[in-house]
Amino acid sequence: PDISDRQRLFEIWAVIVTAIGKFIFMDYLQLRFLFIVVTIIFWTIYIIIRKNVLPQILFYWGFRQDNLVQASKLVLPFGLVAIMFFVVIGYFQDTLNLTWHIVPILILYPIWGIIQQFLVIGLIAGNLKDMKSVRLHHALIVLFTALLFGLLHAPYTWLILGTFLLAIFYGIIYLRERNLYVLGLLHGWLGGLFFYTVVERDPFIEVFGKYLNL
């Protein structure tokens, strides 16, 4: 689709502002649930608006089904190996926490995962790749988005390292296949398992705890 560099820069800066909001509302003010809901609603509205203006934008961004099988075949081996490492690390750290809370997280987190992949991989990596005024090597684009994604999970060292490595893989697959559904599902499941195996955190409590009196 014909997208101006001005529009691409606007989207990149909008993602950066959203990232700053994450540190303010999720980390400092501890309004995790509110921030996630508002972010999902805001960017869903933006997606709908852009789709009405440029119908082919959804396919371009990666909201597509034609390559689901092909993209899944690429990510499945990586996902299985990653889960194995999570369990092994958690076992030796004694941080395995396989509570029932993981079930709703594995159901809900892929939705948030798709939005995160859309913002960081779709709008950052995708726009940097296709800008007309700037030509960057694919490796530099992948590295930049991975660094950004890792830093978004500061100050937790394991999360920074884990998401940085995962984002390198996400970026490579996205620039090759552009399927946000597969990457969002992978992100949601691996992210949920990572919390309950490696970093000894319970996102279910962190997000819903004060609303459910847990």
Explained architecture:
The structure is a single chain. The chain contains nine helices and no strands. The relative contact order is 0.15. It has helices at 5-28, 32-53, 57-61, 68-93, 102-130, 138-151, 157-177, 180-197, 203-212. It has 214 residues and is mostly helical.
Task: Map the helices and strands.
Elements: H1 5-28, H2 32-53, H3 57-61, H4 68-93, H5 102-130, H6 138-151, H7 157-177, H8 180-197, H9 203-212
Summarize the structure.
The protein has 9 helices and no strands.
Number of strands: 0
Into which percent range does the helicity of residues fall? over 70%
Computed over alpha carbons, the radius of gyration is 17 Å
Order of helices and strands: HHHHHHHHH
Shape: globular
Poorly predicted runs of 5 or more residues:
none
What key phrases describe this protein's structure?
79% helix; mainly alpha; 214 residues; single chain
